[in-house]
UniProtKB/TrEMBL annotation:
This is histidine kinase. It comes from the Bacteria. CDD domains: HAMP. InterPro entries: Bact_2-comp_sensor_kinase (IPR050640), HAMP_dom (IPR003660), HATPase_C_sf (IPR036890), HATPase_dom (IPR003594), His_kinase_dom (IPR005467), Sig_transdc_His_kin-like_C (IPR004358), Sig_transdc_His_kin_internal (IPR010559).
C-alpha cells in the first residue's frame, strides 16, 4: 500500500491516530532535545574540567622547571656574591686541573680556613641537596675540559679539546638556557638513554666579564612524571616541554622526546584548540627568559571516549523515556479509541433500527457519561416511540370506528332526512330536530378535515348538547363561551365531547329542571384554558381519587374512549404536563379543566 493509501486509511479520518502521532512526535523531539542538551552541557563541563586539569598540570610543570632554572641561576650568582668562591671558580676554569689542585693544596697549607670556598665542594653540595639532578658539569672554555658530578657516582674530569670531540664547538654555539642535553655530553657521561633536561648558565670573570666557561645542570625527567601524578585527578592528555628551537625536552606520553616537535607552527596560533596529530585542546605556558615552552595537549577524541559510556547511558535512557512516553499514552488512547468505536458501533445499530442495543461502559469519565446519556436517550426514545405508537394505534382505531360509521354515508344521511321529514309531517317537531342534530353530529364526526380547530370541536359539542336538550325538554341548559382570537387554534378531535358525554351519563339529574353545563375557552398567557363546569351529582372523594389513579395509567387495547383516552391523547400530543384536571364536590358539581399550549403563529393564523 502506498503512503497516501496508508494515510487515508489509518490517519486522515482517525482522530486518535493523529493525537498519538502528535504525542509521539512531541515526546521524541522533547526527549531528544533534552538528551542532547544534557550531553552537550555535561560534555562542555567535562571539557572545562579537563582544561582546568590540563592548565594545572602545565602550571605545575612550568613551576618545577622554572624553580630548577632559578636554582641554576642562583648557583652562579652565589659565585659572584662570594668573592673567595668566585676567585676559586675563576682559577679552576682558567687553569688546568693539576695546576688548580696544586694551588688548592697550597692554600690549604697556608690557610687555617676550611675548604668551604672550594668550587668543587660547592657544586658537590648542590648535587647532594637536589636528588633530581643527574649531572652537574663545569666546562672550561680556556682549557677545554669538563668536570662532571654524577648522582651516585664519583666526580670525573674529561678532556674535550677540539681535536678529540665536538664539545667545544657545541658549547660555543648553544645560547639557550634550557635545552635538550647535547648528544656528545650525554655520551661523555654515559647517560645517552636517560631522559634529561639541560639548564645552563655562563660563568664570567668578575672583573673582566670574560666568559670562563659554562655551568650545565642535567635534571632527570622522571621528577616531572611525579609532578604530574601529584594531582588527585590525572589529566587525560600529555604534557611536553619544548626548547626555543622546538626540540622536545620532556614528553609525558614518551612519543616525541629528543625530537623536533612537528606541530610547532600550529602552537603559535593556538587559542583553545589546534589541529595537531588530531583535533586537540591545547594549553601553553611560555618562559620568555629561559626560552622554553610547556605545552599541554588533550585530544578531543580522548575526552569524547571518556564520555562514551555516559553518552550510551543518555541514549539508552532517552530511548527508554521515549518508549514510556509513547507507550503509556498509546495504551490510554487505544483504550479510548476502542470505547469510542464501541459507541459508534452501537449508534450505527440504532441507526439501523435496533433500539434494544445498550452500551456497556461502567466508567464515569467523559466517554462513560456519553454512553450513559446515550442509553438514557434510547430509553426515553423507546418510551416516546411506544407512546406515539400507542397514540397512532388509538388514532387508527378511531379512524376505523369512524370509517365503519361512514359505511354508505349518503344512504344514512338520506335515510335520516326521510325520517326527519316524516316526523315533521306528523307534527313531531322535536323528533325532527333531534334527527337533524344527530345527522349533523354524525356528519361532523366522520368527515375528515386537514385542520381541525377549537371552533369545530365546540360545534360538535353544541350538536351533542342540543340533541340531549331536546330529549330532556327544558330540564337543563348549556352555555358556551370562546375568545374570538383562539377559535382557529388547532384542536384534538373528540377531546371535549367525551367529557360532556360523561356529564350527561353520570352527572345529569333528570328529576331536576335547573341543570346547567357551561363550556368556557379563554387565553391565559401562552395557554388556552378550557373549563367544563356543571352543577350535577358530583363525585365523592374516594371515587375521585380512583378516577385520578386510573387516568395515570396508560390506555389498554379494547377500552372505549373516555376520560382516560382524552387524557392520554392530551399528554401524547402536548407533553406530560398537559393532562386533565378534575375537581368535584358531591351534590355540587364537577369542573374538568384542559390546558392547551399555543404559539403566536397559531394565534395570528387566519383560516
Amino acid at each position: 500500500m502506498s503512503p497516501a493509501g496508508l494515510y487515508r486509511k489509518y490517519i486522515k479520518n482517525n482522530m486518535f491516530t493523529k493525537i498519538l502521532l502528535l504525542i509521539a512526535v512531541i515526546a521524541v523531539i522533547t526527549i531528544v532535545a533534552l538528551s542532547y542538551l544534557m550531553y552537550y552541557f555535561l560534555f562542555q563541563s567535562a571539557v572545562r574540567s579537563e582544561l582546568d586539569i590540563q592548565r594545572g598540570a602545565v602550571e605545575r610543570v612550568e613551576r618545577y622547571v622554572d624553580q630548577k632554572y632559578e636554582n641554576v641561576q642562583s648557583y652562579v650568582n652565589e659565585l659572584y656574591r662570594n668573592s673567595s668562591l668566585g676567585l676559586d671558580a675563576s682559577y679552576f676554569l682558567m687553569n688546568s686541573f693539576n695546576e688548580y689542585m696544586v694551588k688548592r693544596m697550597d692554600r690549604i697549607v697556608d690557610s687555617t680556613q676550611s675548604n668551604t670556598d672550594s668550587v668543587l665542594a660547592y657544586f658537590k653540595q648542590r648535587l647532594d641537596d637536589d636528588p633530581d639532578i643527574q649531572n652537574i658539569m663545569l666546562y672550561s672554555a680556556e682549557e677545554q675540559y669538563v668536570y662532571v658530578y654524577k648522582q651516585g657516582s664519583m666526580t670525573r674530569l674529561y678532556q674535550a679539546n677540539a681535536t678529540r670531540s665536538y664539545i667545544p664547538d657545541v658549547m660555543a654555539m648553544e645560547t639557550q638556557s634550557v635545552t635538550l642535553p647535547n648528544l656528545w655530553l650525554r655520551k661523555l657521561t654515559g647517560d645517552a638513554s636517560v631522559p634529561l633536561i639541560s639548564i645552563r648558565s655562563p660563568i664570567n670573570d668578575m672583573t673582566t666579564y670574560k666568559n670562563l666557561g659554562q655551568l650545565l645542570v642535567l635534571y632527570r625527567t622522571e621528577a616531572l612524571d611525579r609532578v604530574l601524578r601529584s594531582n588527585e585527578t590525572e589529566m587525560k592528555g600529555y604534557v611536553m616541554i619544548l626548547s626555543g628551537d622546538g626540540q622536545v625536552m620532556f614528553d609525558s606520553s614518551g612519543k616525541y622526546y629528543g625530537q623536533k616537535y612537528p606541530y610547532t607552527d600550529q602552537l603559535g596560533k593556538v587559542k583553545d584548540t589546534a589541529a595537531l596529530e588530531e583535533e586537540s585542546y591545547v594549553t601553553t605556558a611560555v618562559h620568555s627568559q629561559a626560552g622554553y615552552t610547556v605545552v599541554g595537549v588533550t585530544p578531543k577524541r580522548v575526552i569524547a571516549g571518556a564520555f562514551e559510556g555516559l553518552r550510551n547511558t543518555i541514549i539508552a535512557t532517552a530511548l527508554l523515556c521515549i518508549v514510556v512516553a509513547v507507550s503509556i499514552p498509546s495504551l490510554m488512547i487505544v483504550n479510548y479509541s476502542k470505547r469510542t468505536n464501541n459507541i459508534i458501533r452501537f449508534m450505527r445499530k440504532v441507526e439501523k433500527g435496533d433500539f434494544v442495543a445498550r452500551i456497556q461502559d461502567a466508567k464515569e469519565d467523559q466517554l462513560g457519561q456519553i454512553s450513559s446519556s446515550f442509553n438514557e436517550m434510547l430509553d426515553k426514545l423507546t418510551r416516546y416511540i411506544d407512546q406515539v405508537y400507542k397514540a397512532e394505534i388509538n388514532q387508527k382505531n378511531a379512524e376505523l370506528s369512524a370509517l365503519q360509521a361512514r359505511i354508505n354515508p349518503h344512504f344514512l344521511y338520506n335515510t335520516l332526512e326521510v325520517i326527519r321529514m316524516r316526523a315533521l309531517s306528523q307534527g313531531a317537531q322535536d323528533v325532527g330536530d333531534m334527527i337533524y342534530s344527530l345527522s349533523m353530529l354524525f356528519k361532523n364526526i366522520v368527515q375528515h378535515k386537514a385542520r381541525y380547530t377549537l371552533k369545530d370541536e365546540l360545534e360538535a359539542c353544541r350538536l351533542y348538547l342540543e340533541l340531549f336538550r331536546i330529549r330532556y325538554k327544558d330540564k337543563y341548559i348549556y352555555k358556551m363561551y370562546c375568545d374570538e382570537q383562539i377559535k382557529d387554534v388547532p384542536m384534538i378531535k373528540m377531546s371535549l365531547q367525551p367529557l360532556i358525554e360523561n356529564y350527561i351519563v353520570h352527572g345529569l339529574r333528570s328529576e331536576r329542571d335547573d341543570n346547567v353545563l357551561s363550556i368556557t375557552a379563554e387565553l391565559k398567557d401562552t395557554e388556552i384554558w378550557i373549563d367544563i363546569r356543571d352543577n350535577g351529582k358530583g363525585i365523592g372523594p374516594e371515587q375521585l381519587e380512583e378516577i385520578r389513579a386510573r387516568l395515570a395509567l396508560a390506555e389498554s387495547s379494547g377500552e372505549s374512549f373516555g376520560l382516560r383516552s382524552v387524557n392520554e391523547r392530551m399528554k401524547l400530543t402536548y407533553g406530560q404536563a398537559y393532562e386533565l384536571d378534575i375537581q368535584s364536590e358531591p351534590d355540587e358539581g364537577t369542573v374538568v379543566t384542559i390546558r392547551i399550549p399555543v404559539t403566536e403563529e397559531e394565534l395570528n393564523r387566519v383560516v
